[in-house]
Amino acid sequence: MAKHIAFLKAINVGEHKIKMDHVKKLFEKMDFENVETVIVSRNVVFETKTKNSVFIKKKIEIELEKSLGYKVATFIRTTNEIEEIFEFKPVLKSDLDNDQNSLYVGFFDRQPGKDSQKKLQSFWYSSKSFRKSIGNGDNNPKFNNNKKDCI
Are residues 41 and 13 in contact, defined by beta-carbon separation less than 8 angstroms? Predict the structure, then answer.
């Protein structure tokens, strides 16, 4: 059974206040197993036999909207994918040790369109700090159809 992480966007902001133990019960109701919530980040770790991440995402989004009364954008990644992102080293450790530098990880729901890719690539060309993540590891700011995440 594969372990997944559901990154829930804006689940607990503004007028939408929800306790994470309630979210955990909702995930268990969806037949996910070994459900754990991360209170600080509002993410959910769970296991499922289902391998289709698109199906998992839709299932969660539909159930959360039905139960909570508002849409919750959801990104699904396996723990293996997160480990791959964690292991990817787009910058030198010495750069990360500098308090003036930051490393941001973004998740895309789908392959960015050509216009969006150009906008994202403009960060690379203007600051030399934008990197495409997990892929061929060459830090080339191109996108492929298999990986949608970037660092």
Answer: no
The residues, ordered by sequence, that sit 6+ positions from 134 with a Cβ below 8 Å of its Cβ are 81, 84, 85, 88, 147, 149
34: left (phi over 0), alpha (psi -120 to 50) or beta: left
Residues 44 and 94 in one domain: no
103 & 127 share domain: yes
pLDDT in tens, 96-124: 788 887 777 777 777 778 888 778 777 66
Domain containing residue 37: 2-84
Q: Quick one: 105 and 79 in the same domain? A: no
pTM for this entry: 0.73
Give the Cα separation of 105 and 11 in Å (integer): 19
Count up the domains in the chain and report the number.
2
Residue with tokens 């892929």: 135
Cα separation, 109 vs 98, whole angstroms: 31
